[in-house]
Inverse folding.
């Protein structure tokens, strides 16, 4: 299980990385390599050149920009896991990090890598979609922002142009006083890719009523999706499990779930309701715990 | 534990000597052994479940850098004898590389030899093979019925179909007020060691010796290698000092060995094949049993099971590997721990277009235990009896041993009821039931799992003559050689590889026990096959009994010789001397003694002081046959299968999240009785590992195929091995009923845990979902499938209720 | 390509193809065979080494990517010939292994845990090794070894031999 031969380059900056991409159709960017290298080992991916951006200076950071937190593309997942800014400002991202692979893969895997792989079961992707993150790629010396909802096109397919390189992910920060988050996923083994995952973030008023909500479901369809209608329906509501389940059920009625060796389409659709309801319940509870 | 003071070193919690090399990364694994100039093999495998090989174009591959050779099936088959098969099935020939027809996806079609593995893989992609696809069959029932034949010349897909009747089955059925019949399925899984199979062969044409380093666990390996390669066995030197990175049965690798052995001879260079994980999972021939069991039992109103009919239909894959015999070993414990008076057993092995099965931990016993235990549970349910109570009523009682079962094996010893009682007391059975009810009240599904089973141990050959009358093998020896050198150090030699069972520690402990010296002072080494005594490798939970026994007897011979020398030198009769801590003294005058050093010196240098005719030196061997063995089966197929029977009793609590179908093991208690324990750390470890492996077989692991006949679970992302998250803490309850047939009373334990865990998990899950009207008779029980079943049941129950209203 | 690697506090210059994994480089070029290949696709963890103190799968890293990091392999853990680190000794004490194939990686994963967390709970230990598959042990005695080592390292760095 050895990869096919390739050339290796380590550009000095992101523009040079883009230029290398432009110069070679078969080239691919590598950062942490935790998804790409297994594919290469099985020769399911055979890049002619690997452009290693992992150590490009200035691409690994967590920056508090007030309304958004900017996370550099090559920021390692284990850095995010314990980052104090992420913990306080992006509780949903902090919540999912322990579910991303294993300790050893988080030590090499990057936030940007997870985003550009676009795996529908990836937790970071789900958070980006749920919170409505903005992705910024670099191409031809320019930065181009795109909404997460427009970026993910299908399983492992994104809108990233072939000659572009992701530069950062900008996660919106909620300034509401009482924020709570919830995340649930189901899989066979605890650290496997999920069959179904759901994330929720809510803001509550002093009365325990929802002022704002974001809910997303991953691993069920080709790309993670937001439950906009459900989020709306929570407005000014206290948590009511039956109502929430009804709302989610209606919201997923027409989706076309994936099926694979591990879980049927029916399973995914049905359990999506449970996962979302549990994530929302947790989010309410989490928020009400914050005075 | 043992009676304190009974033994000096045996049963004490000593460290395992092998561990020191492993914790520093200095194991000597097959892939670590790299002879100068070695070349690397990569395999070209068939992408279809069945296909005729029309042509093989090697030219592009041969033109690539670093490529030495491309070998195909016709060349290899022309130069070697076909691989040995245990059964008498000459029309199911098998070679390492497919000959004209490939019969499963992943079967090896060609082998590329290159300077390194990456170049070999590059070239393997460039070998162009023209296939003509053929019809295929995957399902055992379909294969049994005929239709598509995997081996045309054989005339059917059936390799083995024998029905044994032991006792008055028809009469017992007729006399029983109740019967119950069901079908259960054991899914295709295996032991999947973390080290794949690896072998390096190096032919020396000047000495005419083929050196082999392999991660092997296989009886008769050098013999079969020599036969297939058409060279004398004295030209095959298998190095047994290779550490094997896990095996639990499957590290057979005979086809790998023939392949690299041939290539090394052909090319005049050392050649190695270290399987990668894909080669290993698809075409390494290491899948385990895949069985349907049709079980019917006859019982009375008290739940006493009088008779059983069991039909086991095993899907062995495309060729007759070792696996059909895995239907034979269970004959030795076909009634489990129960007093079932008569049995009809039909054993069927069919070929299909799946990867070939190999020997897997417990050699067919774990699936059989699962089938039997599922049946006992259902009988209890049918009568409305407690599942525990029914087991108690049927179990053999302590005072009934030795107990002869209908199929001809006498169980050596046991105290099943006591073990059960100890487990219940430890677990707080009533508490456990209360806990289940409490969980159910919170809306969870919860179930208690119960499984009792036996571990036949002391692995013998009896299933060979039973299933293939042309084979007359009636024992599988094991051996030990001990030398005390002229300065008095002790070296014991064993004659097989190990895969983590701690055999060096065991031999050291046993020799130390007998000679009354610190076991750490006993050097233990491994011979190679040219200077070894007979061994049949660590299969069938045999080494504590067989290697332990051989080491014991060899050490006794040393001791007896020392005693004889001392008595002679002291000028007193043999009965008047005694051995203590390495020296020998006159029992009537204890300060008249000969020390270890003096005795060793006499044996090695002072032949004039030895008793007349005594051989000088201190080197002895002992070759041991399997206790209680040696007999051929009777005409109706009764035979003493294995000598010793360990017992285990599992009691577990499982919850299932009804919305997800995800089972979680909340409590796991195991009662275990394997007689005298030689090393508690080792026995505990193997038992814990066996449970984890059994949990895998019950809940996670399956070599799943799609309808196109392709293996879809062929890497570690789809074939799910339990991680530390999935294995709960296990509480071990120990009991010790010594075996009368072994030197310390020990029995086997290499398969413990794995034998009962799948049955226990299945029992618990069924107990949990029974209130919904669900019965699950198939392993593995996968999360999403279980979730779908629960959802359907809830829905139809709701509909029923509505209708009722 | 030429690459300079810092392994166990020594610098090694090696010539490798870009496609050579760090695992293969360690084993084949530097003869550090304590890192093992189990799956070569990033699941089993048998190839674990430490990169700047963090447990990492060496089959998922190319050797050409590994310059400039402090790499620790199992060979770098024992304090001297015939001497064991407290963690290695604890694995011997509880018999936290059988075949030994997953063992070096387990010990390195545990080493990374204990260097960040001197008093891990059972859950934390389980989580830290959950990316390392052991087929032999069922993990019980491995978890015990790590807990024992943590306990001893908090006390004195002087494992006692019973
Ligand atoms: S060999 Fe690297 S994770 Fe399995
Ligand atoms: S000790 Fe054998 S795989 Fe862990």
């Amino acid at each position: 299980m050895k990869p096919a031969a390739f050339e290796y380059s380590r550009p000095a900056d992101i523009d040079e990385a883009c230029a290398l991409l432009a110069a070679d159709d078969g080239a691919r960017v590598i950062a942490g390599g935790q998804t790409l290298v297994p594919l290469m080992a099985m020769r399911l991916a055979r890049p002619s050149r690997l452009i290693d951006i992992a150590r490009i200076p200035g691409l690994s950071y967590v920056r508090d920009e007030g309304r958004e937190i900017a996370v550099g593309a090559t920021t390692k997942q284990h850095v995010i896991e314990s980052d104090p800014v992420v913990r306080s400002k992006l509780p949903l991202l902090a919540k999912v990090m322990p579910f991303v692979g294993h300790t050893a893969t988080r030590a090499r895997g990057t936030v940007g890598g997870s985003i550009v792989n676009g795996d529908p079961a990836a937790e970071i992707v789900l958070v980006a979609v749920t919170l409505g993150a903005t992705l910024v790629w670099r191409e031809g010396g320019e930065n181009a922002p795109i909404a997460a909802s427009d970026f993910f096109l299908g399983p492992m397919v994104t809108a990233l142009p072939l000659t572009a390189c992701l530069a950062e992910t900008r996660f919106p920060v909620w300034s509401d006083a009482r924020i709570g988050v919830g995340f649930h996923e189901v899989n066979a083994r605890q650290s496997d890719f999920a069959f179904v995952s759901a994330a929720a973030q809510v803001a509550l008023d002093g009365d325990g009523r929802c002022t704002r909500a974001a809910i997303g479901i991953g691993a069920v369809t080709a790309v993670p999706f937001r439950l906009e209608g459900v989020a709306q329906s929570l407005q000014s509501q206290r948590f009511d499990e039956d109502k929430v389940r009804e709302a989610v059920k209606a919201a997923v009625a027409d989706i076309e779930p994936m099926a694979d060796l591990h879980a049927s389409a029916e399973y995914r659709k049905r359990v999506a309701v449970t996962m979302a309801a549990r994530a929302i319940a947790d989010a309410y509870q989490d928020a009400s715990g914050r005075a | 534990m043992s009676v304190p003071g009974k033994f000096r070193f045996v049963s004490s919690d000593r460290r395992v000597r092998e561990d020191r090399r492993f914790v520093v990364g200095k194991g000597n694994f097959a892939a670590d052994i790299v002879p100068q100039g070695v070349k690397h093999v990569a395999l070209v495998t068939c992408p279809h479940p069945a296909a005729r090989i029309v042509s093989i174009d090697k030219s592009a591959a041969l033109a690539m850098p670093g490529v030495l050779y491309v070998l195909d099936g016709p060349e290899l088959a022309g130069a070697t004898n076909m691989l040995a098969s245990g059964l008498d099935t000459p029309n199911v020939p098998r070679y390492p590389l497919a000959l004209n027809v490939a019969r499963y996806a992943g079967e090896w079609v060609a082998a590329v030899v290159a300077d390194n593995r990456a170049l070999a893989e590059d070239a393997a992609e460039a070998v162009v093979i023209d296939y003509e696809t053929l019809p295929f069959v995957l399902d055992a029932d379909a294969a049994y019925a005929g239709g598509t034949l995997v081996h045309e010349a054989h005339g059917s897909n059936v390799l083995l179909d024998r029905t044994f009747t032991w006792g008055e089955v028809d009469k017992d059925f007729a006399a029983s007020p109740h019967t119950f019949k069901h079908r259960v399925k054991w899914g295709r899984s295996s032991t999947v060691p973390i080290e794949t199979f690896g072998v390096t062969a190096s032919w020396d044409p000047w000495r005419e010796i083929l050196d082999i380093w392999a991660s092997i666990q296989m009886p008769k390996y050098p013999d079969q290698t020599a036969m297939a390669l058409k060279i004398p066995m004295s030209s095959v030197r298998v190095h047994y000092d290779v550490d094997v990175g896990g095996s639990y049965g499957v590290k057979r690798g005979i086809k790998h060995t023939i392949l690299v052995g041939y290539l090394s001879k052909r090319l005049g260079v050392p050649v190695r094949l270290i399987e990668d994980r894909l080669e290993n999972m698809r075409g390494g021939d290491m899948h385990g049993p895949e069985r349907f069991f049709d079980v019917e039992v006859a019982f009375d109103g008290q739940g006493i099971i009088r008779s059983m009919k069991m039909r086991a239909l095993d899907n062995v894959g495309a060729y007759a590997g070792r696996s059909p015999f895995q239907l034979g070993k269970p004959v030795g414990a076909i009634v489990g721990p129960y007093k079932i008076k008569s049995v009809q057993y039909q054993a069927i092995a069919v070929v299909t277009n799946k990867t070939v099965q190999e020997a897997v931990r417990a050699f067919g016993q774990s699936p059989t235990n699962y089938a039997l235990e599922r049946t006992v549970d259902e009988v209890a349910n049918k009568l409305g009896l407690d599942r525990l109570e029914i087991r108690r009523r049927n179990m053999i009682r302590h005072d009934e041993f030795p107990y002869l079962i209908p199929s001809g094996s006498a169980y050596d010893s046991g105290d099943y009821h006591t073990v059960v009682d100890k487990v219940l007391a430890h677990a707080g059975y009533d508490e456990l039931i209360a806990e289940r009810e409490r969980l159910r009240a919170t809306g969870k599904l919860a179930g208690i799992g119960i499984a009792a089973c036996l571990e036949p141990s002391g692995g013998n050959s009896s299933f060979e003559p039973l299933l293939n009358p042309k084979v007359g093998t009636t024992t599988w020896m094991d051996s030990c050689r001990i030398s005390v050198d002229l300065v008095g150090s002790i070296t014991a030699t064993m004659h097989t590889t190990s895969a983590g069972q701690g055999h060096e520690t065991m031999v050291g402990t046993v020799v130390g026990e007998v000679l009354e010296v610190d076991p750490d002072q006993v050097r233990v080494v491994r011979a190679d096959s040219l200077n070894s005594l007979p061994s049949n490798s660590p299969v069938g939970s045999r080494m504590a009994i067989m290697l332990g026994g051989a080491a014991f007897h060899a050490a006794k011979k040393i001791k007896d010789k020392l005693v004889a020398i001392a008595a002679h030198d002291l000028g007193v009769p043999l009965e008047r001397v005694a051995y203590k801590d390495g020296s020998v003294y006159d029992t009537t005058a204890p300060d008249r003694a000969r020390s270890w050093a003096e005795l060793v010196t006499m044996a090695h240098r002072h032949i004039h002081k030895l008793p007349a005719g005594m051989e000088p030196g201190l080197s002895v061997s002992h070759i041991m046959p399997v206790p209680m063995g040696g007999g051929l089966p009777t005409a109706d197929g009764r035979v003493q299968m294995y000598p010793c029977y360990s017992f285990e009793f599992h009691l577990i609590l499982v919850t299932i999240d009804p919305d997800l179908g995800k089972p979680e093991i909340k409590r796991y208690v195991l009662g275990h009785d394997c007689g005298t324990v030689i090393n508690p750390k080792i026995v505990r470890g193997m038992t814990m590992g066996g449970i984890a492996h059994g949990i895998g077989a019950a809940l996670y692991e399956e070599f799943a195929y799609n309808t196109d006949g392709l293996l879809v679970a062929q890497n570690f992302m789809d074939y799910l091995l339990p991680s530390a998250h999935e294995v709960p803490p296990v509480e071990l309850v120990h009991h010790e009923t010594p075996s009368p047939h072994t030197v310390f009373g020990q029995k086997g334990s290499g398969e413990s845990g794995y034998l009962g865990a799948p049955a226990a998990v299945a029992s618990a899950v069924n107990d949990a979902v029974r209130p919904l009207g669900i019965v699950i008779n198939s392993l593995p029980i996968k999360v999403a499938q279980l979730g779908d079943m629960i959802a359907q049941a809830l829905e139809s129950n709701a509909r029923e209720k509505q209708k009722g209203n | 390509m030429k690459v300079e690697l810092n392994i166990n506090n020594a610098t090694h210059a090696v010539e490798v193809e870009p496609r050579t994994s760090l695992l293969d480089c360690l084993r084949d070029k530097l003869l550090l065979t304590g890192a093992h290949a189990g799956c070569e696709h990033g699941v089993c963890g048998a190839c674990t080494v430490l990169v700047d103190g963090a447990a990492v799968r060496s089959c998922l890293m190319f050797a050409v990517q590994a310059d400039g990091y402090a790499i620790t392999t199992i060979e770098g853990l024992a304090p001297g010939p015939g001497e064991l680190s407290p963690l290695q000794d604890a694995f011997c004490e509880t018999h936290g292994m059988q075949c030994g194939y997953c063992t070096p990686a387990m010990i390195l994963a545990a080493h990374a845990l204990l260097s960040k967390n001197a008093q891990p709970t059972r859950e934390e230990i389980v989580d830290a090794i959950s990316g390392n598959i052991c087929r032999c042990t069922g993990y019980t005695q491995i978890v015990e070894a790590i807990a024992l080592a943590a306990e001893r390292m908090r006390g004195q760095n002087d494992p006692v031999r019973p």
Summary: Chain C has two domains: 2-76, 86-153. The beta strands of chain C are 2-7, 10-15, 48-51, 54-57, 70-72. The mean pLDDT of chain C is 95. The pocket of FE2/S2 (inorganic) cluster (ligand 2) is lined by residues B 194, 246, 500; C 97-103, 134-137 (CB under 6 Å).
